[in-house]
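Q: what sequence does this backbone want?
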């Protein structure tokens, strides 16, 4: 019987079980005057319940049917429907963990301070989390969004030598605007719609990540197998040079394109060029225009962790005055009427081919793996017909324009959500 709820959870009915529910309503704005009429301390309108971890020395406490939440289960949205781990009834009974009925709010108080979610299922929690059991005058959905607005302030209050956390008192003392339940419901519904929009935009952007790799394989086949029997060449034959930069001690990211800056590994390691990953060049160090990043450069990390070494990015319309570091190579193509930058980039980022290149990395114990210019030059690659490479390059440019539109849509959705959150609670 799943019945372990602490004796301190009976201070009032929980709205998640029988109280007001969010319904579809028009988002016609937030009445800030009504929001500011009444502010109460959070501890006056909810009961806070802690959790615990069953002994890891008892295998019979784990692998059961009871969802057991930790900070690893905080996801992208504001609700939770499953957990990575489950415990048994014996684990629940013989630990400080509590079973929290569905329809309440879970907040991180250690390691993931301020993160909050609404549990859609009955679940147990560990000691890094607290459950906020709402009384009749507070809607859990409304509280979840309020905590999202309060998260930066809670995180700033966190203390601790190794793992930072906040106390129950700090949660209880939070001041929360408390309008009528109908107003709470309206505000929560509006914020839920805005959150759903931004999550949909984010998901669409993530889905589009798989388009170009799939298109590459469809057009050229798996390059390691070379099913179309394209002529094989080496990078030594196809490149006129592999150029590298320098890495002086620099300050933080530059604040203007008028400043010279040196790229960081993060500018390339994701496979997408990120010019904002840079550090400003000190004024006492002269810039080197010969290693400035140029349009359609193919940049490859020569040194990084085993997972990130040999990462490749294609530069498109870069901001001025960005310099190569000594950890990133520029592959200078000898003849672009034979080998196009877009094809070379896609080849070097294709999964199996990249693993083959990464296998060339070496390094002493305790150091990051490194691939030398000589080893890169030895890499063999298929050379498809130029007309096919042109078609793929056009596809890449079209996809980049589509992605730019998606990113702008996501930016607007994020701005809408944050603006509504600010108006509601700040």
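A:
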């Amino acid at each position: 019987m799943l019945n372990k709820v602490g004796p301190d959870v009976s201070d009032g009915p929980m709205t998640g079980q029988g109280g007001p529910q969010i319904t579809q309503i028009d988002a016609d704005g937030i009445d800030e005057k009504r929001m500011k009429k009444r502010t109460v301390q959070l501890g006056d309108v909810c009961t806070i319940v802690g959790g615990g971890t069953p002994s890891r020395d008892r295998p019979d406490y784990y692998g059961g049917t009871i969802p057991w939440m930790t900070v690893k289960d905080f996801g992208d949205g504001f609700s939770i429907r499953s957990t990575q781990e489950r415990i048994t009834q014996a684990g629940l009974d013989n630990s400080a963990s509590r079973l929290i009925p569905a329809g309440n709010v879970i907040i991180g108080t250690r390691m993931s301070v301020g993160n909050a979610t609404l549990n859609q299922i009955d679940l147990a929690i560990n000691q890094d989390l607290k459950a906020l059991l709402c009384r009749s005058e507070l809607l859990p959905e409304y509280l979840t969004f309020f905590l999202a607005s309060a998260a930066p302030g809670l995180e700033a209050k966190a203390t601790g030598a190794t793992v930072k956390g906040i106390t129950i008192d700090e949660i209880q003392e939070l001041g929360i605007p408390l309008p009528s339940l109908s107003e709470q419901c309206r505000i929560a519904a509006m914020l839920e719609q805005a959150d759903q929009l931004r999550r949909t935009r984010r998901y669409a952007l993530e889905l589009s990540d798989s388009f170009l790799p799939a298109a590459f394989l469809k057009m050229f086949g798996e390059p390691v197998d070379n099913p179309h029997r394209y002529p094989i060449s080496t990078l030594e034959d196809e490149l006129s040079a592999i150029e590298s930069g320098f890495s002086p001690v620099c300050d933080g990211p530059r604040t203007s394109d008028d400043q010279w800056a040196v790229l960081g590994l993060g500018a390339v390691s994701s496979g997408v060029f990120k010019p904002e990953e840079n550090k400003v060049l000190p004024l006492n160090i002269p810039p080197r225009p010969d290693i400035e990043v140029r349009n359609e450069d193919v940049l490859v990390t020569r040194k990084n962790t085993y997972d990130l070494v040999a990462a490749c990015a294609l530069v498109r319309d870069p901001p001025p005055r960005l310099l190569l570091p000594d950890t990133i190579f520029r592959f200078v193509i000898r003849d672009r009427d034979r080998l196009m930058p877009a094809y070379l980039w896609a080849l070097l980022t294709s999964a199996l081919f990249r693993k083959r290149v990464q296998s060339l990395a070496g390094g002493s114990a305790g150091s990051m793996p490194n691939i030398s210019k000589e080893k890169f030059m030895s890499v063999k690659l298929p050379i498809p017909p130029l007309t096919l490479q042109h078609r793929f390059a056009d596809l890449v440019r079209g996809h980049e324009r589509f992605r730019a539109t998606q990113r702008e849509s996501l930016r607007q959705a994020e701005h809408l959500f944050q603006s509504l959150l600010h108006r509601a609670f700040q």
